[in-house]
Amino acid sequence: MNMENQTFDVVIIGGGPAGLNAALVLGRARKAVLVIDEGKPRNRVTHEAHGFLTRDGIQPGELRRIAREQITVYPSVIFADDKVVSAEGADGHFQISTASSQTYHSRKLLFTAGMKDRPLPVKGLAEVYGTSAFVCPYCDGWELRDQRLVVINKGTEAFHFAQLISGWTKRFTLCTNGPDELSDEQRQELLAHQVQVLDSPIKGIESVNGQVRQVVLEDGTTVPCEGIFFKPDLAAGSDLPKTLGCEVTETDMVVVDEFGKTTVPGVYSAGDAASRAHQAIMAASAGAFAAAALNNELNMEAWRQHG
Fold it and tell me: H/E element holding 230?
């Protein structure tokens, strides 16, 4: 099949849980779908994915492999291992170009490219990320329950994270890596709960084979620990929604309604790219919602055209 001469109902950009679940729903709805994915998911540093019913503890790559295998039952869904470099056009007539110089046409677009990490700001953090340093306690808190942890964050987000992580362990230190940006009231409440707050800049993280041993501060303080939670610095996995005119937040998150519709007709987004809830099962759910909305929109358009 010459895919360049075919107009797909939906081109899905991004092959993580959101994009794959959307492809599954649309394939079962007999829609012509192309999933384009460059194969560089953000969670590739993670050894296990958690909180996904029937797949708790699965390797992220294995989850994607099983999903692709099951989706191949539906012949109207095609995969392309490629990177989208441009998208243009309007509802019903989009054109997508890729890094391998392929051009595809589609009636609708679904962006599920997620987010990507900017360079990690602390020396030694890259060596432990995904092994003993994580960003989400819902995903990895169970494995670090009752352990000595360091939380790297500051301000109101750090205060709320301290409340959250206390459900997994009471043995944690808050390292703000500079001025803590906390209010006096927040400092007092943390003190009342015996949470140590250290605002000296972090000199580095010492580890062995990915297992953190201690966090070393510029003032000479060392904080022994078995794990770290930190706030990542994220960028959009794709800037193409913004290029197409979609509204985005100041943190590059695509603004969507409850069905994944962006502010541009015919363009949808789902998963981490359009949500602060960065969990695989929530991304998959959002992909299913967006797929159902896309299918309904396509069906209504066809109904009116042939009525």
Answer: strand 227-230
Q: Under CATH, what is the fold of the domain 3-117+233-305?
A: FAD/NAD(P)-binding domain (3.50.50)
Q: What is the DSSP letter of 220?
A: S
Distance between CA atoms of residues 14 and 12, nearest Å = 6
The fraction of the chain above a pLDDT of 90, given in percent, is: 88
Rg of the chain over Cα atoms, rounded to whole angstroms, equals: 22
Report the CATH superfamily, name and number, of domain 125-230.
Answer: FAD/NAD(P)-binding domain (3.50.50.60)
- CA–CA distances in Å: residue 193 to residues 42, 173, 221, 224: 34, 11, 21, 20
> How many helices (H) and strands (E) are present in the chain, helices listed first?
8, 17
d(CA 246, CA 261): 10
d(CA 37, CA 113): 8
Q: Is the pLDDT of residue 180 over 80?
A: yes
Express each pLDDT in 71-127 by its tens digit.
Answer: 999 999 999 999 999 999 999 999 999 999 999 999 999 999 999 888 788 999 999
Q: Which residues fall within 8 angstroms of residue 142, CB to CB, at 6 or more apart?
A: 50, 168
Closest CA to 173 of 161, 183, 184: 161
Global pTM exceeds 0.90? yes
Residue 39 has pLDDT above 80, yes or no: yes
**Strand, helix or coil for residue 18:** helix
Q: How far is residue 209 from each of residues 8, 95, 126, 131, 212, measured CA to CA in Å?
A: 46, 46, 12, 9, 8
How much of the chain, in percent, has pLDDT values that exceed 70?
A: 97
